[in-house]
Amino acid sequence: MRIVIAAVGKLRRGAELTLIEDYLDRFAKAGRSLGLPKVEVVEVEDRRGGGMEAEADLLSRAIPTGALVIALDERGDQITSPDVTHRIACARDGARDLCFIIGGADGIAPSLRERADLRISFGRMVWPHMLARVMLAEQLYRAATILAGGPYHRE
Ligand SMILES: C[S@@+](CC[C@H](N)C(=O)[O-])C[C@H]1O[C@@H](n2cnc3c(N)ncnc32)[C@H](O)[C@@H]1O
């Protein structure tokens, strides 16, 4: 199984990258005994001004064949942390790759959004893509702690 975050934009050193690395590192440590792989981050950038469609093309190339594709989108479903955890566990148990997609300033092109198996929202407000990436990394770590039965997640 692979877990990929395919995201538009290259993060420079700074607070967001520090947080993402920290959460993904914690996920890797917690996930080791749970049969979860390290998360791979694939950053894409269209330097030719091709807009969302060009970005969608680059993002599509980062999606492993047959992966369950989850697009992050403010118009998507608002699901719970245990729900995300369940989907990650199902993918793991079915030996299926997982790919999370995060768009750029204009969002994810409708063609790719529709292709996703699931669209999830962190609320109806729009967040900068790098903060969406931080929140996703935290949710992955949270999911690992839920699967491990740890005290981090409380309802
Ligand atoms: C600046 S936002 C783009 C907003 C753009 N107006 C749109 O139509 O999607 C950049 C990316 O961050 C992620 N994002 C931002 N807000 C989000 C939210 N509330 N829930 C889930 N993902 C979000 C999405 O992947 C989005 O494509």
UniProtKB/TrEMBL annotation:
Its EC number is 2.1.1.177. It holds the Pfam family SPOUT_MTase. InterPro entries: Alpha/beta_knot_MTases, RlmH-like, tRNA_m1G_MTases_N. It catalyses: pseudouridine(1915) in 23S rRNA + S-adenosyl-L-methionine = N(3)-methylpseudouridine(1915) in 23S rRNA + S-adenosyl-L-homocysteine + H(+). Keywords: Cytoplasm, Methyltransferase, rRNA processing, S-adenosyl-L-methionine, Transferase. The keyword Protein transport does not apply. It is found in: Cytoplasm. SUPFAM superfamilies: alpha/beta knot. S-adenosyl-L-methionine binds at residues 72, 103, 122-127. It is an enzyme of class 2 (transferase). Homodimer. Belongs to the RNA methyltransferase RlmH family. Specifically methylates the pseudouridine at position 1915 (m3Psi1915) in 23S rRNA. This is Ribosomal RNA large subunit methyltransferase H. It comes from Paracoccus albicereus. The gene is rlmH.
